[in-house]
Amino acid sequence: MLDLIAGDMVEVDRVIAQRLDTGVPLVSQVSKYIISAGGKRLRPALLLLMSGALGYTGEQRFNLAAVVEFIHTATLLHDDVVDESTLRRGRPTANESFGNPASVLVGDFLYSRAFQMMLDANNMRIMQILAEATNVIAEGEVLQLMNMHDATLDESAYLRVIRSKTAKLFEASTRLAAVLAGATPEVEEACATYGQALGTAFQVIDDVLDYAGDAHETGKNVGDDLREGKTTLPLIFAMRRGSPAQATLVRAAIEAGDTAQLGKIVEIVHATGALEASRAAAADEAKRAIHALRDFPSNLHADGLLQLAAQLLERRA
């Protein structure tokens, strides 16, 4: 379904390259390093697909697609510093290659450049959506930091973090398309619900892949979440479904951020059916996304959004 917007993505890449142009070489170098790493570009793709579904073909869709990619990239730069990550998308992180100070400061540059670009739309509602999204994402980052090494975290607290930290920008991307298209408040809310549900499902599957994926395919080290002390859904289900001894082992590893028993923990996650339970939770979110578009007119872009939600559950990287 992404073939539908291949030409649009070329235009978004042009805008990105143009707006990364700066007289400070290190800013360009670090920005281009992380953006050129590839990735799925799901957030700009969602904005473009939703714009197509709603019949909006104006130039601002390219500008705002680049804006959400810049905001996302800024969060990655900051995340990798906070998490002390060394690998992303199969190659060294920016902080590993350029150091923490450069990563933090270039992340700040991308945030401020994104806000400069928002002004081009000359629409206060768009500013409001993106300002709120950026603020909620920052709150999610702090919530996650507070929850590090907390093995008592339950499913609702976990969902609160990922809906703030990850799903909020998905939600903003689809909501922006509705605003650009001049959609009714009801359609705008349907678009936002689709984005939030899809973003939640995406993050749950991402957390599943930390215990079921291959580092060569996922581009990150298996067990990274555990090393960082993150209580993700597979671990929550493993502690709930496992024996007292299994739950104690998982709990101790989370609290210590210890991967010495990673092999045993992966076995527990598999043996307790925690991965299947997590995928089922992601499937419920994908169904919620699909349901949100139930009243949309059928066209290629709307069908692409439905396919995207369905295929997300087959994600392996």
TrEMBL record:
Single Gene Ontology MF annotation: metal ion binding
UniProt cofactor(s): Mg(2+)
InterPro entries given in the database record: Isoprenoid_synthase_dom_sf, Polyprenyl_synt, Polyprenyl_synt_CS
EC number: 2.5.1.90
Assigned protein family: Belongs to the FPP/GGPP synthase family.
Protein name: Octaprenyl diphosphate synthase
Keywords recorded for this protein, A-Z: Magnesium, Metal-binding, Transferase
UniProt entry tagged with the keyword Metal-binding: yes
Alphabetical list of Pfam families matching this protein: polyprenyl_synt
Catalytic activity: 5 isopentenyl diphosphate + (2E,6E)-farnesyl diphosphate = all-trans-octaprenyl diphosphate + 5 diphosphate
